[in-house]
Write a structure and sequence with these properties.
Length: about 220
Amino acid sequence: MGEPKLSRMKDKRWSLDGMTALVTGGTRGIGHAIVEELAEFGASIHVCSRKEEDINRCLEEWKNKGFNVTGSVCDVLHRHQRQTLMETVSSIFQGKLNILVNNAGIDISKQIIDNTADDISTVMATNFESAFHLTQLAHPLLKESGSGNIVFISSITGVKAIPLLSAYSASKGAMNQFTKNVALEWARDNIRANAVAPGPIWTPLLESVMVCFKI
């Protein structure tokens, strides 16, 4: 087991000991890395994923590292599953949540003219509507914690046009604007909101995009 990150630091000002976090899509790619970073700083974390086998694999891995992580199945595309997820989180963390990371997302890479109504609905519901709804559901838990933080995992495509990613880009652009509204309206509840817009990072999602580009 590696040395805990905090033990290598000169002070404890970055400690997340006692903090709770929910990371959607936390078993792969960026989400997986976020979980490990939060756990290394002492946070207790709940993750969700569409696949139970992914959750079980990661929970075993994190247990061996000494991380305090729980998980449950949730396809954020579906409203009722999002509601069940937040009920689970509320129960595990006794009605308080310090950190919400809206990370789960999908992409359908097509020319604009080839996107179907189902394509657009699926991308917007998974990437943007789910983040909007989970943020709504998390509000009382974040407020109750006394120090709430929301992180939206956006993308550079939300501010820059890239071929074949029109629906994905639109969902991330909407997320960027929503982040501003959340930060404005919920500052009085001591809840902060920030969007992170990564460029290309080699994850399973990016790999699918590269296949479409034949790179």
